[in-house]
Every structure is written in structure tokens, then in C-alpha cells.
Amino acid sequence: MSHRVLIVDDDAEIRELIAMYAKEQQMQPIEAQNGESALRMFRTWQPDLVLLDIGMPDMDGFAVCRRIRQESNVPIMYLTSRQDNADIVNGLELGGDDYIVKPFHPDVLLARIKANLRRSRTDGDSRCQPLVFGDLVINRETYEAHYRDQPIPFLAKEIKLLIYMAERPRQVFHIDQLYAGVWHSSVGDARTVMVHISNIRHKLAAYAPDTVRIETVKGIGYRLIP
Fold it and tell me: What CATH number is given for 4-127 in this structure?
């Protein structure tokens, strides 16, 4: 089965060039000329990877990435003429997986596309496995948690935050990291994360005692301890 690649760029020549090379590699290119069209195409075709320009007139690539990340973990590669470090950092913090600066060599671009597709398949396989901490089982596919087969009533952002930390036990996260990783934004209110952490703690204590705890690391952030 060929991989569907969504090519988002307001330059028709660049889209056509990439589409031609993608077809040679038995990929199925889907083209969008602006941000709104990209979101429609994304929801219609559910591509395996998104190639995304940043400088577009109606909605820039950063906004498109932010919207896609609200509903999907599909690999997103920026393909842009912007070379500033601030743009690169912003793009990756918003949820981008790779950043390629124009002009590009087609062979290098295709190699990076294939690498991101391979990584996505590997990550997808690993995400199928539940996270288990004693009698606590966290299902990453259904976003559900059970303790001794009894469901724990986590809200959507709570379970996503718990999964994000549980995938990396004992790692210390700054609040900004948690916001970027779960809310897919580099700008957020620290109180939002703190409230969600507090709610998770209460529910873990009430429904799944002696399994995991979220520890505050003073002056830095939080970590999950099995």
C-alpha cells in the first residue's frame, strides 16, 4: 500500500516537483495550495505524512501544524525558505517532526520523508502496547486507564498528560515542556498544567493507590515515579 503524502505549498512548481518525485517512489501525493485547503485535504485523505510550507497567505504553516496536532500525530515536515533559529525552534515545539530549508535536493528530501515514515511506523507499533504499573493499566490507543479492571474517570487532557509522563518515567519535565507536549503549543498558562497535575494526583490516590505518583521537583517541574 502506497503512502499518502500531503504537499502544502502556495508555489505550484514546488508542489508539482515534489509530487513527481513522490510518484517515482510509489507514494501518493496530495496537493494543497494554502492552509485552509490543507486542513480539508488532511481530513478527507488522512495522509501518512505532511510536507508543510510556512509562509502562506491565508494561514501560515505554524497555524496549520497546530490545528493538525489537535487531532493527529501524523509526521509533519516543514519545507520552507525560513532559516532563522527562532522559526525552527517554534516549528518543532508546535509539533513538527522535521525542518528542511529550501532550496532542497530531491534525494535528500525523499530520504528524510522515508525516515520519518519509518519512525512513525515504529512509534505506532510501540504505542499499541499498554503502559503497566502494577495493577494500573494505561491504554494509549483508547486513552483509558484501569486499576484492577475498574475504569478511572480521567478527562481527555488529564489522560493525555498522564500518558505523556508515564511514557518517560522518572524524567523531569518543565511545565513548558508538558504544555508543548500535550497542548501542542509553545505559549500557555502554567496554572493550566498545575491544575491538571493536581486532578491527576487526586484521581490516582483515590482510584489507583500505590501504583504511580507525580512528584514535584522544586524549581524545575514534575516527574512520574512508579
Answer: 3.40.50.2300
User: Is residue 146 within a helix (H) or strand (E), and if so which, with residue range?
Assistant: strand 144-147
Report yes or no on whether pTM surpasses 0.85. no
| 81 residue type, one letter | S
Asked if 110 and 69 count as a contact pair (C-beta separation under 8 A), the reply is: no
Of the candidates 49, 91, 73, 24, which has an alpha carbon nearest to the alpha carbon of residue 101? 91
Residue pLDDT, tens place only, 43-60: 888 899 999 999 998 899
Hey, what CATH topology would domain 131-225 get? Answer: Arc Repressor Mutant, subunit A (1.10.10)
Angle at 142 between CA 137 and CA 148, to 5 degrees: 25
Segments of the chain assigned to CATH 3.40.50.2300? 4-127
43 SS3 class: helix
